[in-house]
Amino acid sequence: MSSAASKILSTLRGPVLYNAKVAGQVAKQVYIREGMAPPSGAQIETAKDAALKFIWDARQAKTWRNITKTQYFNAGLVAAEAYVFFMVGEIVGRRNLIGYDVKSADSHDHHH
Predict the structure, then answer these.
(1) What span, in angstroms and rounded, lies between the C-alpha atoms of 11 and 13?
(2) Residue 58: inside a domain, yes or no?
């Protein structure tokens, strides 16, 4: 590492540590104030049982016949919302609205 980079990192160390401690304290206060807690073993078992029941029911043809048009419509809206969030994440990750910034093979120097 160059001495300039080392100097920059050493000057940033203090503010980064301070901000991390502040963020940790804020998160701790939110955790306490909201009464948050890790799930208990019983809650995990209940969630697991519900997920297994959902999967089992989804495999049964009668389950799909009992779904109303409104439920199908709502499921479609949730799927569309998830897709939009995925696409926004892709755009943010690419830092570009359309496509990735890929250099063409012709513009690279070939060193073989």
Answers:
(1) 6
(2) no
Q: Is-above-0.70 flag for pTM? A: no
d(CA 94, CA 88): 10
Q: How many domains does the chain have?
A: 1
Return the structure tokens found at 56: 């089992």
φ, ψ dihedrals at 58, nearest 5°: -65, -25
Is 36 domain-assigned? no
Q: What pLDDT tens digit does each residue of the chain (112 aa) get?
A: 577 777 777 787 888 888 889 988 998 898 888 888 888 999 999 999 999 998 998 888 888 888 899 999 999 999 999 999 999 888 888 777 776 666 665 665 555 5
Half-sphere exposure of 70 (CA within 13 A, CB side): 0
Q: Is residue 46 part of a domain?
A: no
Q: Which residue segment(s) compose the domain that 77 sits in?
A: 68-106
Dist CA 94 CA 78 (whole Å) = 24
